Amino acid sequence: MYRALVASSVICLLSAVVAAPSATEASYVSLIQVIANPEKFDGKRLVILGFIDFEREADLVFPDKLRYDNVILPDTLWINPTEEMGKNKTMLHLKYVRIDGIFHAGAQRQFRFAVGGMTDIRSCTPWSDPSHPGRERIDEMLHSEPLPK
To answer: E strands of the chain, at which residues?
Structure first.
């Protein structure tokens, strides 16, 4: 019973994340779609998931850790971090994050490899930590002992 409750809660949460937005909300979109078709998303408020790297040269979002590890720079977006992101840098750096912001197609002067970037970021929240991925956390919840009654 407990496992079924946890599984249905996870499914509801994921459904809410990918639900179609209203006209005033951001569109949830794959970072890979944005990289493949930057002009399609230019000037639009988007919510993306990606692997964030704060560096001196440029703050970048990669589609995944593998592209970060192998320095696949054309598959990145630059970001203009907010003050809050700066305060939370240790919590966000080298983690998967959910970013809600305005996408702009095109390179930024200090980072010419990216297809575009995110500005006017409303939120940047942790999504998953590669050292303890979300899938592992869900499995732990599903296989843990039920709560006492």
So the answer is: 27-28, 45-53, 60-62, 77-79, 96-105, 116-128
How many structural domains does the chain have?
A: 1
Q: What CATH number is attached to the domain comprising 58?
A: 2.40.50.140
Structural domain for 63, as ranges:
25-132
pLDDT at 115 over 60: yes
Q: Does some domain include residue 12? A: no
Task: Report the alpha-carbon distance of residue 117 to residue 59 in Å, rounded.
Answer: 10
pTM (2 d.p.): 0.76
Token digits of residue 79: 């970001």
Alpha-carbon distances, residue 5 vs 52, 92, 94, 127 (angstroms): 32, 30, 32, 22
